[in-house]
């Protein structure tokens, strides 16, 4: 993905506030050299942030007529308004090694024995994993084929198919569960006795 940034000459809280009032977003680019203060069009950035690829892939940033490879590192949103307050990017090159969370794209679940035959419920315990790799080899997503799921068996992080040079970053749990399979619970049917009709109540009162 490609986006355009502009050099930001004025800094400070007041300057950033005035910048936001004109429909711009202050930002910074760090790594591989001096940090660069930038500004971006708010609406273009706001809609770019809605795209998964903008968060998980290498981006081409055009600045002062030159294109740089960058990675989105952080952004801040207004507490209650749909407004981006600040954005951070990191420059990357062929030697940059990084750790980044990558989304998981699931497929084939409906064709698995667990779902098709045994009518099990499939739970996605995780929708992303953190990997370590060279920036140029960062995948936009990791495909997860669930067509082989069977009842009583879970899919663990160690079973994911990662890019050749990528390594899974584990935190605490040695081999976390990514997808679990559970048997569907039978619905319990509760029979409620009907209340006496209004006419029946009146009839009973008349007999007394």
From TrEMBL:
- What does the record give under GO molecular function? 5S rRNA binding; structural constituent of ribosome
Biological process GO annotation list? translation
Q: Which domain of life is it from?
A: Bacteria
| Residue stretches making up the Large ribosomal subunit protein bL25 beta domain | 98-184
Which one Pfam family would you cite for this protein? Ribosomal_TL5_C
Ranges for domain Large ribosomal subunit protein bL25 L25: 5-89
Query: Do you know which CDD domains this protein is assigned to?
Result: Ribosomal_L25_TL5_CTC
| Gene Ontology CC | cytosolic large ribosomal subunit
- Sorted UniProt keywords: Ribonucleoprotein, Ribosomal protein, RNA-binding, rRNA-binding
**Function per UniProt:** This is one of the proteins that binds to the 5S RNA in the ribosome where it forms part of the central protuberance.
**Family that this chain belongs to:** Belongs to the bacterial ribosomal protein bL25 family. CTC subfamily.
Describe, as the record does, how this protein assembles with itself and its partners: Part of the 50S ribosomal subunit; part of the 5S rRNA/L5/L18/L25 subcomplex. Contacts the 5S rRNA. Binds to the 5S rRNA independently of L5 and L18.
This chain belongs to the protein called Large ribosomal subunit protein bL25
Q: Give the organism, scientific name.
A: Ideonella aquatica
